[in-house]
Design goal:
This protein is an alpha+beta fold. The chain is built from ten helices and 24 strands. The strands form five sheets. Strands 1, 2, 4, 5, 8, 9, 11, 12, 15, 20, 23 and 24 form a twelve-stranded mixed beta sheet that branches. Strands 3-10-6-7 form a four-stranded antiparallel beta sheet, with no helix packed on it. It has a four-stranded antiparallel beta sheet with strand order 14-21-16-17, with no helix packed on it. Helix 2 packs across helix 9.
């Protein structure tokens, strides 16, 4: 079985590892040792051994399958924002997910699912992650800050996918035998999906909406600064790197914040003119933009059964260009205008550049990975895949090895030039990716130089310069391609534990899933 099944990422067989990830379980230092919590602990161990057994039994080539579904409906008026969480159905685990892709769609008058142009429904981002055994109350989910979930236990494992407008043209695909591996019986993922309805808005209004400007509902009428309740949506205002702080970047301070995620909450309107409750409401303009449109995120998994040589992936905490080696990053920042809008794009004086140094797997949270546990602070890992995430106006993302200066990955945006879906003029339709096959061996503590570049011929608010980095544990001797004696002993012991909790597993009720629906698979689609 893959060696990574013996790490905290997949086979939580050590009590210390389990209790650190699941505070509700008893630990050696806790006096509370209820039998119910202990059975929960053993159940986790049982899941791990079932996954090990499944992988061992499927040592040959596994059939690749696809699974396509829609999220719950997102009905939006012109200018309205949907920024909420959805449960995504997936095939029951354990499975090995080798590719993930997503796009915004809608249904035509005949009920057929059709892709939606980016100019009509702007996909600001989707971030998909696994809750694993950790579950939280719905009211806590509603309080999570977009792209930085508060419940770190649920995402500490670093399992997930994420992208923005580039997702349609850039599926996240991993080379064999690497994959994100789900737990035994796991049949759902969680997704934060952020979509803005810009259908029939003027080009100027739509362009403004994409950057989530703060509106009348978000600011004090007296001075235009954001309300305390809006500022409170960011749990820590001290996460910008020193370059951005010294620049006085507006996004780093509540008293200068002008737009971005904090002003793009679920149910908000991106412009006052489209909000019927705003004093700036323009009824004629809003009516001209049309009625409610209903969108969905269509997602597709490519997966196989767990194989003996499957090497599970997890996400690196790196890289957010707004952070550095001491702060995790602000996720977003602003681009000030550096030259005239009629200047040429080739003029380097018109480029805003942020360069920072941070560890490969330190304390960043760009895709909700949470802070790194101490036992993982300095160990070897294999870098398998990298891709950048930029907003409109983005020019490039680059990652270098800080020790050697070698370029690890340069991820470039592909802008559309037409009117067809997948080639929308002025929108990022894809990002170039970097696949390491064979993987690049590094240490989690290795420093990287991260650079994000933007066209600064005009101002932009709430931009992002992030790297999505997929890692795998380094195989241990006798692990992935031949079990050692110790591994067999553990497996045998865990089988006994699995039997102890069998009756509990049989009593478990399958949760009802109501916010997604099946999508007919169209041959050749």
């Amino acid at each position: 079985c893959s060696a990574t099944l013996w790490t905290r990422q997949h086979a939580h067989i050590h009590l210390k590892s389990l209790t650190s990830r699941h505070p509700e379980l008893p630990s050696p230092s806790r006096k509370n040792g209820s039998s119910d919590a202990l059975l929960h602990l053993l159940s986790g161990a049982a899941s791990a051994v079932v996954a090990v057994a499944s992988a061992s039994a499927s040592s040959g080539a596994a059939e690749s399958k696809t699974y396509t579904r829609l999220t719950g409906a997102m009905p939006l008026r012109p200018g309205e924002v949907s920024n909420t969480y959805h449960r995504l159905a997936i095939p029951p685990g354990p499975i090995a997910i080798t590719e993930f892709k997503a796009e915004v769609v809608e249904k035509d008058s005949d009920g057929n699912v059709v892709p939606t142009p980016l100019r009509d429904a702007y996909l600001h981002h989707h971030v998909v992650f696994s809750e694993q055994e950790s579950r939280e109350e719905e009211h806590r989910r509603r309080r999570w800050f977009p792209m930085k979930p508060r419940n770190r236990d649920a995402v500490d494992r670093g399992f997930g996918f994420g992208a923005g407008t580039e997702s349609r043209g850039t599926p996240q695909k991993f080379p064999d035998p690497y994959a994100f591996v789900t737990d035994e019986g796991e049949d759902e993922l969680m997704a934060n999906v952020h979509v803005i309805n810009t259908r029939r808005l003027s080009e100027a209004d739509a362009g403004h909406c994409l950057e989530c400007p703060c509106t009348e509902d978000d600011v004090f009428a007296s001075n235009g600064t954001i309300l305390g309740s809006v500022a409170a949506r960011r749990k820590n205002w001290g996460e910008c790197n020193l370059d951005l702080v010294h620049e006085g970047n507006d996004s780093c301070f509540p008293w200068t914040y002008k737009g971005g995620l904090l002003c793009c909450e679920h149910g908000d309107f991106c412009l006052d003119a489209y909000d019927a409750n705003s004093t700036g409401y323009n009824e004629g303009l809003a009516e001209a933009a049309g009625p409610v449109s209903t969108f969905y995120l269509r997602y597709q998994l490519t997966y196989t059964a767990l194989k003996r040589d499957t090497r599970p992936l997890f996400l690196a905490a790196c890289c957010d260009a707004s952070g550095n080696d001491t702060v995790s990053g602000n996720i977003e920042y602003d681009i000030p205008p550096l030259c005239d809008k009629d200047d040429t794009a080739e003029n380097e004086a018109c480029v805003h550049e942020v360069t920072t140094t941070q560890m490969l797997h330190g304390h960043g949270e760009s895709f909700g990975t949470g802070e790194l546990a101490k036992e993982y602070a300095d160990r070897e890992v294999d870098v398998v895949y990298m891709v950048g995430h930029l907003h409109r106006g983005g020019l490039s993302m680059m990652a270098k090895d800080a020790k050697t200066g070698e370029v690890l990955c340069e991820s470039l945006p592909s802008y559309g030039s037409g009117n067809e879906v997948g080639d929308e003029a002025g929108y990022i339709n894809g990002m170039s990716t970097c696949t390491f096959d064979p993987p690049r061996r590094m240490r989690t503590s290795d420093p990287l130089i991260i650079t994000g570049r933007y066209d600064a011929r005009k101002a932009h608010t709430g931009v992002m310069s992030l790297f999505y980095v997929a890692l795998a544990e380094v195989p241990v001797e006798g692990g992935p391609r031949g079990w050692g004696l110790a591994a067999k002993w553990w497996a045998g012991g865990l089988v006994v534990l699995a039997c102890v909790v069998a009756i509990r597993a049989k009593r478990a009720e399958h949760r009802r899933r109501t916010d997604y629906e099946a999508v007919p698979v169209v041959p050749g689609a």
